[in-house]
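Internal ticket #5521
Category: modeling
Description: The requester needs a full-assembly model to guide mutagenesis choices. All entity lines are attached below as received. Residue total reported by intake: 716.
Assigned to: D.W.
Attached entities:
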Amino acid sequence: MNLSPLAAGQRIDGFELLQHLHRGGMASLWRVSRSDLAFAAVMKVPQIQDDPTVIVGFEVEQMIMPLLGGPHVPRFVAAGGFEAQPYIVMEYIEGPTLRPRLEEAPLPATEIAAIGAAVAEALHDLHQQHVIHLDVKPSNILFRPGGQVVLVDYGLARHDRLPDLLAEQFKLPLGTSPYISPEQVLHVRDDPRSDLFALGVVLYHLATGQRPFGAPTSIGGLRKRLYRAPTPPRAHNPDCPPWLQEIILHCLEIDPEQRYGSAAQVAFDLTQPSSMVLTERADRTARMPLAQQFQRWVRSVGIEPVQRNVTQQLQRAPIVLAAVDASQEWEALADALRTAARRVLQSEPHARLACLSVLKTNLIGLDTPTDESGRNRHVARLVQLQHWARPLALPPHRVTYHVLEAPDPAVAIIDYARTNRVDHIVIGSRGASGLRRYLGSVSTRVVAEAPCSVTVVKVPREETLSAA
Amino acid sequence: MTTALMTDIHSNREAFEACLAHAAEHGVDQFAFLGDFVGYGADPQWVLDTLIEHVSHGAIALLGNHDAAALGTLSGRLNSGAQQAIDWTREQLSAAHIEFLSQLPLTAEDGPCLYVHANGWDPGQFEYVFGTFEAGRSMSVARARITFCGHMHEPMLYHMGLTQRVEAFSPIPGSPIPLSAARRWLALPGSVGQPRDGNPAACYATFDELTNMLTFWRVPYDHEQAARKVLEAGLPPHLATLLLTGGS
């Protein structure tokens, strides 16, 4: 394909080229306008048109973008075929990208957590649309004015319901060297946890000012990450809190099975670090000893990646919310609720359980933090939750406990589920008393308004036989 | 403009009816029937009457090898079960049905699409597109960017980029696939009347020319009824079993 260079003022399929914005290695970007467009738009035009990787990458982007929606992806407008001028027109996201923030690293932990949670939220949204990005890096992460993250550049992405035009087509691993996951080095392109690895690299950089694996330029250099765990962030920056090191190293696990199960789970920890249970990852002070690295290397040589697509992986790693009610009638429901929670968790090895209890507060006025007997109600409720979950025998990193204080338990549960991208709520229902029928029970409202599936658990009522 | 691609109906009224109803619910306004309308099943008359009606409204219909066998113009021979079914079918057909079959072309072209029963390199010989090799052979000789083929009873999508490398993709029912203009495509919608991939639900596909979206569908139908009719007609019993098991 030999095309004449584009110039401002030129028209392509009804779009007027306004201003040349950027020329990257693969594509250039033009601000464009069309009379019927209600928002600012850009046209992306591939740059090196004889390189098959660029052409196929552009085809991939043309196939995937029209299928995507939501706030975390630029709105797709139009695509032009390869018979004339290939292009994609999409919503213009002014940015900034995350890239300039790297210059300021190390950033404060709270800020890193906020950035990381916003990126994880965007990734989870993408994964739920069956797409793995596979090229997550600061220059592909843009912020809307409100702080919401938009992910751009789908040239290496994988949609698990479309043919993968890039699979086996090219000999070299596809990705950007500092961010590419170990499994991508092995040509695996269907694991959403590859994006979590790249997110881990970004967070590591923000927390330490350094890249965990450098920027290798050879296959041998890339393969090092198959066996070599990075230096713990706290060895570079002692101000990095242990919980942040825990999250970063959890994302950077070599084996995807050892990483977080989903981006929602990463966001969950980044937004509520106080409820995390820390493991030895948080305590690490130095890189793994050489002998252990060697063992890992030996294992990595024969790694046979498991084939699983993004949908299947998300199904394996749901966040399950158990809404545990600690009122008087609770005893009778506790067992039934636990049984239901166990059933939901049983089949999903990477599921996480969030046990939630709502302390009802008055709408007006301040509640005293302690009740009459002086016991802290909050702590008492937390202890109750832990007691309730103990028979489930979940490993500590798979269960968290949360006590919320709110005037309306139903609203609190629904908000919590929405904010934390909960996949399934298990909640008890105590049947219908006259008053509850009148006011509407908590479970009824949760069923009606929750953004996810809800299992309502009831204790079979014993029918009282009237004596003859 | 959405075209339904239906092929290898094989005298299966229940499956064909279910697919037509499904297509009506999904905004289909054109039809391309890729051949093998008769053989195997118990309802050749209803199936052909319905096709004649659609063709009179502009639908594309092509000749398949079973249709040629029913006319007595097939050069090779079918396997014995299929031949028995064709012998039985012949006795059911009216002059109008024979007339309809005898006028069917082997291929049709429309815009970016080539429609053919068996393959693009020699449509009259009815060789199969078994895999990437045959798919590449067919795509290389086709003028059209997209080829729709019947003959193979399992749904499959092949594609070939600038490097001429051919890849196969097992489509997921109900998920639209944008057919990139930068490559060639060969789609096998799978059989309406006798699926053989272990799933008894009928296969067909829809293609929206405006958006370039191809969607494969699986449509459950009363396959037990269709199998019962095969037995009642005195056709070989294994043809009924195929409908019940989806060929596995």
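Resolution: model delivered.
Comment from assignee: The mean pLDDT of chain B is 95.
Ticket closed.
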